[in-house]
Task: structure prediction
Amino acid sequence: MTPTLYVLAAGMGSRYGGLKQLDGVGPNGETIMDYSIYDAVKAGFGKVVFVIRHQFETDFQEKIISKYKHIVPVELVFQELTNLPEGFTPPAERVKPWGTNHAVLMAKGVINEPFAVINADDYYGQESFKVLADFLQSKAGKKNEYCMIGYRLGNTLSESGSVARGVCSKDEQGMLTSVVEHTKIEKIGESIISDFNGQQLVLDEMTPVSMNMWGFTPDYFDYSEQFFIDFLKENADNIKAEYFIPLAVNTLIQSKTVTLEVLDTPSKWFGVTYAEDRPTVVTKLAELHNSGVYPAKLF
Result:
């Protein structure tokens, strides 16, 4: 059984001002997402599922799925503000859905095999997809054994300013014990500094951080569904509360319900955190093509 790649793309329209403006950063106008699909298929993923908003379905079918459907089976699911368990309704003032783990829940019933979760607009690197695919292929028929790709902090920084990262702690067996969000990390001189709760913390460049690249088995949907009900009971009237993946993951690992292995990768993450990052991304992708990592044209 080959694993499935689940791509979180429900926020793309709002970030890009409509899917027609998806940014082409590769030499032939490729989007960052194109590289993720290419790398995932090469690594052994057998299906791709996208979660999007209903209003972008036509554009997404024409401009995105048409590129991929001849190389890998593709399905769509939809995340909307009103996708809530029975008995719950969103606050009248709320305008956006409920976060990344709410997006994950939209694939329940569509994904029945081990699966990876990634962001649509992050470049993750070929090694990361291979490590993740190998792990997931070994988990067919199993439960409660998850993973995440732990990027080396020094490989995820922006030259244009500070970044937010989920800093991971793990035990001697390499299992995740916690993810703590650091909202302002940047390289100052030769040191990597986190402004954390008013303290200046020096972090090692090898510190594992989460870039929202996870590996789950389908039992994760049932846990997430129950935790979402608990979340809504506490936050249903909060128009800004978001149900993030680390919230559910932390609950599961702290209760020892599951194990989650932190898998190291040598890949360098990059993305357009700031407008100033775009030329660097364009240069890096051109170099990857020129060095033969990618063919002249992806698709």
Residues 219-235 form the longest helix (17 residues).
